[in-house]
């Protein structure tokens, strides 16, 4: 009887391993998630401001002066557009990820807009 139990456990472990092999993300997918690529968009400052007002002022303040989040009034001195895109997409520290809330093009537009604030 013990052989049947051990055989069953071995079979279950093998089946679980096969399921994990096909459901876990691959190296390429993990690399893409860790280093999101900013899409090419045409800058639209009005839309960027609208996106920021709708999503960012609760933490960064209505004038981007900071609050819960850091001051963003001169963010272009600290980060370029690609870096800002990565931070907004993935999140960092207390800042949540916005990749599921905003379209990549919206994040890219905001990133370009913030990178010009120097």
Can you describe this structure?
- It comes from Paenibacillus sophorae.
- Heme c binds at residues 56, 59-60, 95.
- One of its GO terms (molecular function) is iron ion binding.
- This protein has 118 residues and is mostly helical.
- It folds into two domains: 1-26; 35-115, Orthogonal Bundle (Cytochrome Bc1 Complex, Chain D, domain 2), CATH 1.10.760.
- It is built from six helices and no strands.
- It has helices at residues 2-23, 27-34, 45-55, 57-60, 81-90, 104-115.
- It is elongated and about 75 Å long.
- The N and C termini lie far apart (74 Å).
- The model has no long low-confidence stretch (mean pLDDT 90).
Helix content: 55-70%
So what's the CATH class of the largest domain? Mainly Alpha
Overall pLDDT confidence: 90
- Ranges with pLDDT <50 over ≥5 residues? none
Tell the overall outline.
Answer: elongated
Task: Name the CATH homologous superfamily of the largest domain.
Answer: Cytochrome c-like domain
Task: Decide which structural class fits the backbone.
Answer: mainly alpha
Distance between the termini: 74 Å
**Helix and strand pattern:** HHHHHH
CATH topology of the largest domain: the name is Cytochrome Bc1 Complex, Chain D, domain 2
Major sheet attributes: none
Number of domains: 2
Q: How many E-type strands?
A: 0
Radius of gyration: 22 Å
Strand content: under 5%
The CATH architecture of the largest domain is Orthogonal Bundle
Number of helices: 6
